[in-house]
Design goal:
The protein is of the alpha+beta class and about 160 residues long. Helices cover about 25% and strands about 25% of the residues. The strands form two sheets. The chain has a six-stranded mixed beta sheet, covered by helices on one side. Strands 4-5 form a two-stranded antiparallel sheet. The longest helix is centred in the middle third of the chain and has 12 residues, at about 95-110.
Amino acid sequence: MEEIYFAGGCLWGVQEFMRHLPGVVFTEAGRANGTSHSTASPYDGYAECVRTQFDPDTVSVETLMGYFFEIINPHSVNKQGEDVGEKYRTGVYSNHPEHLTIVRDFIAAREDADRVAVEVLPLSNYVPSDKEHQDRLTRFPDDYCHIPLDLLHKYKQK
């Protein structure tokens, strides 16, 4: 299994979407690239993200990027849907340099590459979100989500 971290606005929706993708075996809501090691600290520059473990024999990083771009506005800076602020920025983080190369190549191949505002960085810090935020939309399907419902569950197995 391999691991990559996706930040695309409110982590509740990103986690709900990612957990249903073919080849994804585990997701966890969290915070990427802040400075604290606790969710009890004040905002420290993190991006809300989803730790995504996947089977590389089933799904590639490039394919995961295609899925990810279905649910984000890649041109938006610090905003996705109604979620506004630095912690809602879009980004992709990994401890595997080859993942970051694939992500950069994916973005560079897009016709709108010059306008894409997705941060692509090594993962320097990760803090899991509190239990109440894990699988939030699975447990409370009527909670707020910036991703339209038909798209949110587009890949959910019936």
